[in-house]
Amino acid sequence: MRVGLQEELDQLEASLQEEGELVRRALRGALNALDQHDEELADEVIAFDDEVDRCYFGIETNIQSLLARQAPAAQDLRLVLAILHNNLHLERMADYCVTIAKLTKLVHDAPQDPTLTEALEDMGTRAEEMIQTALDSFANRDVATAESLVDMDELIDGANRRVVHQILSLSADPDLREWGLRMLLVSRCLERIGDHAVDIGEQTAFLVSGQFREFTDASH
Amino acid sequence: MATRAPSEQTKEEATRGMVESREACIQVTDLNLYYGSFLAVEGVSMSIQRNQATALIGASGCGKSTFLRSLNRMHELVTGAHADGSILLENEDIYAPNIDPVSVRRRIGMVFQAPNPFPTMSIYDNVAAGLKLNSRRMKKSELDQVVERSLRGANLWEEVKNRLNKSGSGLSGGQQQRLCIARAIAVEPEVLLMDEPASALDPISTLAIEDLVQELKQEYTIVIVTHNMQQASRASDITGFFNIEAAGQPGRLVEMGPTEKIFTNPDNKATEDYVSGRFG
Fold first, then answer.
1. Is B276's CB within 8 Å of A199's CB?
2. Residue A215 lies inside a defined structural domain of this protein
3. In a domain, A214, yes or no
4. Contact B264 A78 (CB under 8 A)
5. For residue B199, what pLDDT is reported?
6. Number of domains comprising chain A
7. Is the ipTM of this complex over 0.90?
8. Kind of pairing, strands B108-111 and B191-195?
């Protein structure tokens, strides 16, 4: 039994889950700042990204070291590769949270449409659930749960399309036009967070089966 | 993420197709190997593909070296050792009663764990030794050509071309092993068996041998036994994993397939545990 390797793999998995928790906190902060027009909280979310980046670089460095020293094979190798991918997916999600926070700052004193704000909050809540589901599926090696992310993603995609229609209907109102355009980007950020959660689910399936496959064909 | 066109193959599919499309150079069927009444290796069946490097891995005592030695009938040199089952080299049974074991060993050469050049012979004579023992008489100019070609084939020519008449034992360990490879290929075998060929060498010499395996397989079929799993994963196309269930039990071939598959996603749990370094 390779005790040293197993301990390092366990530590990497724990760090990934920790990073996931940081991303969920960043997303919740970004959604609250948006909902409450809270510029100060938006600044905190932006600064908090350094925490996620520290975690990201820590995992990267540890993987580089582990690959050089331990030469993992088979499932150990797949686990390391999957963590490498998931690390990047989580870091990207955190960047989207920063973008949402920056957009929030740009429009914090602009007039808003409460219906649209509510729709974005719903999308954000779904994105939070998807992050948790993706990380749980990975921790539990649960392919069925990972595949359920596809259905969750369709809901977020549908919500994004509805938000786009709502924003288009706002475009005639000059007071709401700029805010609407910013919110278009917020909606896109939330939709992309959902996509990254699905990608983490695909890594769960790769880890378990050894075969990489996309859950959905993006070309259709 | 980009999606794959239906006509495209994954690397693994391509490798699998390549393995299946090649013809077997050696075909082993239901091979049992004995030392006296002790069954050391049981029920091995495998195809060894032409112009591929096949690595045999497994813990000490699993029978992989015994199996390797059976491929050129060196196993039977141990008193009481015998075999049943069949080994076909290019569809010819090498254990048939009318087959001379020496002729088998000329067609299937062997390189051993520790470099073993003839200590009193020059570099030149070491390479020519097999030819002098096995072949018709050759003219000096013809022999010169074979020696040079063999030393070039073993990536040693440039290092020794100005001291061919010096003793082979004056070379470094890595050079001596390449000299032994030159000696083995001088008789133009069809298959080259290598039993832990780099285990006594430093890392640089080890990589030189591994690079050499990649070149040699263009001309020969290579079978290499190694304890070094990194070496198996670097140097071979196909890997076979041998295992014993318990001490005193016979060794068996557990799994064989493209090296990439064996080291990334093997089918068998014991293979997975072994390549992950979790036992053995």
1. no
2. no
3. no
4. yes
5. 87
6. 1
7. no
8. parallel
